[in-house]
Design goal:
5 helices; five-stranded mixed beta sheet
Length: 144
């Protein structure tokens, strides 16, 4: 199994106060950990301008466009939890999860996140988590 989420890519309390700032913040984690080039973050903004990455139940999953695949150096996920709701195009968001998927590995991650965030009791456990390691365990994101 390849771990696509490590505790050092989880922020318990993001500093962004807007959708754009949150995309920049989660993108910066992906860049800082060597998963993507800075151009991938630009593609995250391009994706958001064409289709919202709001998923429901306090979750947004910003990611790049199909054209930005070459900017992904390795698959990785970055998670930021916010203390206050962000306005994501009229929807409340507390979790911003940036995804960079090499090949099709991101499809498994998206499916896992959809399952977790479709259950509000699971979302509440993520909101109540007191450490990055606890969030890591609750999300359990691995790909084969």
């Amino acid at each position: 199994m390849n771990t696509v989420l490590l505790s050092d890519s989880i922020r318990m309390s993001g500093s962004a106060t807007s959708k754009d700032a949150a995309i920049a913040e989660v993108g910066a984690i992906l860049v800082a950990t060597g998963a993507v080039t800075p151009e991938y973050v630009d593609a995250m903004f391009m994706r958001e301008s064409s289709v919202s990455t709001y998923m429901g139940n306090l979750l947004a999953i910003p990611h790049g466009t199909n054209e930005s695949k070459d900017e992904i150096l390795r698959s990785q996920v970055a998670v930021i939890r916010y203390d206050s709701e962000l306005d994501w195009g009229g929807f409340p968001v507390r979790f911003v999860i940036g995804i960079a998927g090499k090949g099709d590995s991101h499809m498994e991650v998206l499916a896992a996140l959809a399952t977790i965030f479709s259950d509000m009791s699971a979302v509440q456990r993520l909101l109540d988590a007191t450490s990055a390691d606890e969030i890591l365990t609750l999300l359990g994101l691995d790909t084969a």
